[in-house]
Amino acid sequence: MSAILLETVEDSLWQSLTFNIDIGKDTRRVSLDLIYQEKPDLWYMSLTDLQTEETYFRMVPLIASYGDNPNNLWEPFRHKKIGRFVCLPKTDSPSTENPSKDSLNEFYLVWGDDIG
After folding, report:
1. How far, in Å, CA of 94 to CA of 60, rounded?
2. Global model pTM greater than 0.70
3. Before 40, cis peptide (omega within 30)?
4. What percent of the chain has pLDDT above 90?
5. Is the dihedral of CA 45, 97, 105, 7 positive or negative?
6. Distances (CA, A) of 105 to 23, 64, 82, 100
């Protein structure tokens, strides 16, 4: 199992995180864009393969998982073989239920080829 804990920039409302994802023997260089939308006070994400310039998805809401069974936000795109992605609170009681303008750093963003 491979996993990456992604670090965000606290004051930027548009963030681009670039990293490699390994799926089996295949390595892909991707860009994950995090875009804040004032209404409804929520972050959205888009994922692009930097080698092929394929956009895997756009504007998927960044929703936190709670409990023992994390919600894979990339489940609808599993046919693209891009792994799994979860958003987890760093504490039991973050200031907002989901990442908002001022609370993104209260959550872990984790990519993995097999998170469970």
Report:
1. 21
2. yes
3. yes
4. 68
5. negative
6. 27, 12, 24, 9
Q: Letter for the amino acid at 108?
A: Y
Beta pairing partners, 35:
14, 44
Phi, psi of 22 (to 5 degrees): -110, 120
Cα 8 versus chain centre, distance: 10
The number of beta carbons lying within 10 Å of the beta carbon of residue 37 is 13
Residue 94 corresponds to which amino acid? P
Place of tokens 């965000």: 8
Distance from C-alpha of 42 to C-alpha of 64, rounded to nearest angstrom:
11
CB 74 within 8 A of CB 82: yes
- Rounded distance between C-alpha atoms, residue 97 and residue 116, angstroms: 21
Say if CB 59 and CB 44 are below 8 A apart.
Answer: yes
Task: List pLDDT tens digits, range 56-74.
Answer: 999 999 999 999 989 999 9
The domain segmentation of the chain, as residue ranges, is 3-112
